[in-house]
Amino acid sequence: MENIVRHRYIWFLISLLVIIPGLVFLLIPGGGLRPSIDFSGGALWEFQFPDRQRSDLSTDDITRIFVAQGFEGAVVQLSDVTVQGKTLPAALVRTKALDPNKGEEQQRTILADLQAKYGPTTRREQVQSVGATVSQESTRSAVIAVLGASAAILIYLTLAFRKAPHPIRYGVCAIVAMLHDVLVVLGVAAILGYFFGLEVDALFLTALLTIISFSVHDTIVVFDRVRENLINRRAGESFDEIVNHSIVQTLPRSINTQLTSLFTLTALLLFGGASIRNFVLVLLIGLVSGTYSSIFNAAQLLVVWENQEWRRWFGRGDSAATA
Known about the structure:
Helix 5 packs parallel to helix 7 and helix 6 (168-196) runs antiparallel to helix 7. 63% of the residues lie in helices and 11% in strands. It starts with 7 loop residues before the first helix and ends in a 10-residue tail after the last helix. It has helices spanning 8-27, 37-40, 59-68, 103-118, 136-160, 168-196, 202-231, 239-271, 277-307, 310-313; strands spanning 34-35, 42-48, 75-83, 86-95, 122-123, 128-130, 199-200. The protein is built from 10 helices and 7 strands. The strands form 2 sheets. Strands 2, 3, 4, 5 and 6 form a 5-stranded antiparallel β-sheet that branches. It has a two-stranded parallel sheet with strand order 1-7. A hairpin with a 2-residue loop joins strand 3 (75-83) and strand 4. It is of the alpha+beta class.
């Protein structure tokens, strides 16, 4: 049986090698997360296509027309509108604010490009200036929700593992693994934003909250097997051996379960269109990170805590487990 626990400091080092560059890009001048128009506000365009069917329109093609005029990150939504009793296909486009110096030229060029591709095209109204759909208050509420969820997870796991020695440790280690995944996703988003212009929008916030649930669920699967093996502990079996045996038992299930999601998300990333590409990419990163942290961080932290290994780090004697 492979001794995964014995290499725990290698797993911790791998996590640090992923997290630290992301933190650097989060903090350096010119770095950090790039807010999309969902956070910063922008302009709202509405177009109608009287000679077309909705199926003739393509969000990717419309997005490319806007990008060519400097509106990176344009969000296109197709719909139908009723004009004088007739249903017409329409496109609602959300972009960053117009350039004050050449806004009129941008509007004329985009309208001409749409007409060249789709035939007669009308702009229903003047381009409207709109505020951010995800305000600071909403973001603050999401942070509070994460903190509240962390407290609930700590209480739940402490009660669920109350028959195991030191039950509070399971909750704390699960939260640490969850924070690991949050830092990985934020760091990678900062790196991708710095080099490739990836922007953080409302879907990013949704993906981040989804990743947290993925991470905690997978961690609980591993911890539950640790608890069962502790109850059926053989004479002379160390805590390290129990955790390692539990990881090996749950490893196939964890990998197989996550692979099904991985295949689905990969298909969406390749064929799902530009509007959800960043959302799917963030979910993929979080899925891989959550699986890794559950096996190679959360469970390993239990061993470090049980053995009180920090005593050796600071030269305070043996790492006997006494608390």
